[in-house]
Amino acid sequence: MEGEFCECRPLGFVIGLPFAFVSLVLCPVGAIIWLLGSILSCLCPCFKGCGELANLGVNLVKLPIQVLKWFIDRIPC
């Protein structure tokens, strides 16, 4: 029963929320970077850096969720 309660950790969520909102601003930037990198890598496969650029964009899109998970994992019950 106690293990189920510790999975929630609302304090970590509340503390991480402002940082998640800041990283949410970077989400559209990441989507644009991903779109440009994908288009460039499709047009000319010799641009190997464009694939890495697309991966960077995907990581920026995932950033808000990663920030919240990081804060929730760091705050104890």
UniProtKB/TrEMBL annotation:
Q: Does the keyword Membrane apply?
A: yes
Q: Which residues cross the membrane?
A: 12-36
User: Which InterPro entries does the entry link to?
Assistant: TAXIMIN_1/2 (IPR055283)
Which superkingdom heads the taxonomic lineage of this protein's source?
Answer: Eukaryota
Q: Which UniProt keywords apply?
A: Membrane, Transmembrane, Transmembrane helix
- PANTHER family associated with the record: SIGNALING PEPTIDE TAXIMIN 2, SIGNALING PEPTIDE TAXIMIN 2-LIKE
Name-wise, this protein is Transmembrane protein
Gene source species? Glycine soja
